[in-house]
Sequence to fold (364 residues):
Amino acid sequence: MSQTIDSSESLHELAIKIKNWGTDLGFQQVAIIDPDLSQASKNLREWVSNGYHGTMYWMNKHGEKRYKIDKLVDEAVRVICFRMDYLTDNKMIAVLKNDNKAYISRYALGRDYHKLIRRRLGELVWRIRQEIPRHNVNQRAFVDSAPVMEKPLAAQAGLGWIGKNTLLLNEKAGSWFFIGEIYTSLELPVDISKAKNRCGNCRACNSVCPTNAFPEPYVLDARRCISYLTIENKHEIPKEIRPLIGNRVFGCDDCQIICPWNRFSTESKESDFQPRHNFDDIELLALFAWNEEEFLLKTLGSAIRRIGYEQWVRNLAIGLGNSQGNTDVLAALMQRLTVSSSLVKEHISWAIEQQRKKLGHTAN
Fold:
């Protein structure tokens, strides 16, 4: 049975306080919903049945916990949804056009957002409990964790609509933002503000995708998505896709960069999202020169660290293979070849072959 407090008026006042606290903690939008994930769960099952999830096998696990919130948090009846903007630079296109630079998805330039947002939501959970100390409220915060259907929840909360690139779009903030949730057993008053889909006839995001990862609007085949291939995929990247990846070594933002709604995005004021170690504008060779110890040191507290050093070098090797013909690049690849794992060695060998073609020789 869900938890209640003294009156509907008190619940209304608490909801207002929660939204004000959220604003104070750096969130640009807060909304409360009584979720209905029946259609979203149906869409997910169909997506998985088509194999579009690749090796993300967890997408087909957890059963009812994914779409019935009280199965994940006992007695939960409401979801409080949050939006936090993260864009901190405007160099994306310039870096993408320079194939000697490494393109890193903008969300990963600074401190790992999981840590920052989880801490902020944890503080909000604490404030709620302090506000109603006599009540045993079940609550739990989530940030891209556990079997939570974040985008459908956020769409229901009016934080945006799910666009043709399958990302959440907001008419005032584009798509450069993170989302998080608090599941709660409090019967808070809900917001009825679902955002209207404003994609219209535009298909720019689908057309610009380097690997043609959208079999149709609103459907992503992760197996062809550069973000999936460079981050979630732990294995060999298909040879036919490698030239299409270009210099994107951690994720891909093309379908966001091209989106007209991102003209309205504003720069984040969060210092933790500011780029570290020149990740927003750095040479591929500089990153490729890192040993594992340096990788671990410079990705401390970063979302990049989660892929591990082996995948990092694998991705950089592809970027170097796609870069301009350069004897320094070829020499760096040759030097690394004999001291790499079999997975990395295969990608370095491919990159060496590409460089030799560009330099017009086949010398050993």
Observations:
- The chain has a mean pLDDT of 94.
- Residues 8-88+110-184 form a domain with the NADH Oxidase fold (CATH 3.40.109).
- The chain has 15 helices and nine strands.
- The chain has two domains: 8-88+110-184, 204-359.
